[in-house]
Design a protein that fits this description.
alpha+beta, globular, about 400 residues, five-stranded mixed sheet, about 5% strand, two-stranded antiparallel sheet, 3 domains, Cytochrome p450, 18 helices
Length: about 400
């Protein structure tokens, strides 16, 4: 009996030591990213009083007000603040904004992933592999590559319309979300997903946790929180799925006209192919879906513009119809890329106007290079590893009090 009690006491002591060890590791993981705040970069714009403190979380909930308030207090309208472990620079002015939008060292995807609490680190993808991937995506936007996939875009869109049925009532966010996700895979992902509507719906559900983020995740990026574990599981499932498609194509010799095939032909490694596809979908599909959904909502509330667009579409189809019994989809299949770009000026105007309203907010980029990036002609710099944010929709002609 004494031996048993002694053993239980020893086990309890070991368990307590284990718990203390785990707690110590978690505390270190939580605090380690914040150590960088001890020595802020010297070349960056100054920290304003109160903006180096725990007030910074308001940037996550009221970004426009936060940035406007900070710039009003700064002599040159540029200032620095900490957002968790991330050093952030708020830029303002035409010269600073021009540098911000044109500098090759500032990466929007890296900034997006940091600001939304992602644990994917794309900073290391600035080598030749990354440049090759970017060349692939540039090729995806070229006329010849887009022409190869026009029929897919028409078929997918027609299937979406047919699935609405005669009732004609839709959830614009869900309907346009599925369609835009599918079309994005056609152009920057893989046809293996886009070819199956069931797989489109299934994988889109996997992406939803990837777009989740919390302030806690951003401020303590190393802690294994439940939301991070869900995202890790989502990334893993997408990786296994895409790698299965890559392996099948290599074994069978099957060739598709998609971005994944282009990356395979460029000898890009399998993990980078997966990361590039996931990143392209994350960066493009969500904002595009929201804009498309809002466009339908705005048109539903403006019957005059709805009628104008219907007339424009009817005229375009009528001008290209060769036989009376041709459906609209039949005619659209014959449209060239030039036709798509020139036949619908009002529709393009409506989309631009929708984006002007729905995209107002904050854009973010990260300096993934190893050199300081100048903030226009202000004399300040964006150091390596720092984020830079700037307000959009700030044209004085439309906004009398721009940031």
């Amino acid at each position: 009996m004494a031996i048993i009690l002694t053993s239980l006491t020893a086990i309890q002591g070991q368990a307590n030591n284990l718990l203390v060890g785990i707690a110590t590791v978690l505390i270190f993981m939580a605090a380690r990213p914040l150590f960088y705040r001890v020595s802020p970069p010297g070349s960056a714009p100054q920290f304003l009083k109160g903006y180096k403190s725990w007030k910074a979380p308001t940037f996550g909930s009221s970004r426009a007000e936060y940035l406007k308030s900070g710039k009003e207090k700064s002599p040159d309208r540029q200032f620095s603040f900490w957002y968790g472990p991330n050093h952030v620079i708020a830029i303002s002015g035409d010269e600073a904004r021009t540098t911000y939008l044109t500098s090759r060292g500032l990466d929007s995807l890296a900034g997006f992933l940091v600001l939304f609490g992602s644990f994917l680190n794309v900073d290391g993808l600035t080598n030749s592999v990354s440049r090759t991937a970017m060349l692939v995506y540039k090729k995806c936007t070229q006329d010849d590559q887009m022409t190869l996939n026009l029929h897919h875009l028409v078929n997918d869109s027609d299937e979406c319309v047919q699935n609405i049925g005669s009732w004609g009532v839709i959830d614009p966010v869900e309907t346009m979300g599925i369609l835009i996700y599918r079309l994005t895979h056609r152009m920057t992902g893989t046809h293996d997903i886009a070819n199956s509507l069931d797989l489109v719906i299934k994988t889109r559900e996997v992406y939803k946790p990837l777009d989740e983020s919390s302030l806690f995740d951003i401020w303590f990026p190393l802690l294994p929180t439940p939301s991070k574990l869900r995202r890790l599981w989502g990334y893993s499932k997408l990786h296994w799925l895409i790698q299965g498609f890559v392996s099948e194509r290599r074994k069978s010799g099957r060739v598709e006209q998609d971005a994944m095939q282009l990356m395979m032909e460029q000898k890009i490694s399998d993990p980078i192919i997966t990361l590039a596809i996931i990143g392209a979908i994350l960066a493009g599909v969500f904002n595009t879906s929201i804009n498309a959904a809002w466009n339908l909502c705005y048109l539903a509330q403006n019957p005059i513009w709805m009628d104008k667009l219907r007339v424009e579409v009817d005229i375009a189809i009528q001008n290209h119809r060769l036989q009376l019994d041709e459906t609209g989809a039949d005619v659209l299949h014959r449209f060239t890329l030039h036709d798509w770009e020139t036949e619908f000026p009002l529709l393009e105007l409506a989309m631009r106007e929708t984006m002007r309203f729905t995209m107002s907010g904050t854009i973010v980029r990260k300096n993934i290079g190893n050199k300081d990036v100048p903030v226009g002609d202000t004399g300040s710099f964006i150091p390596p590893g720092s984020l830079a944010v700037g307000g959009i929709f700030q044209v004085p002609a439309f906004n009398s009090s721009p940031c």
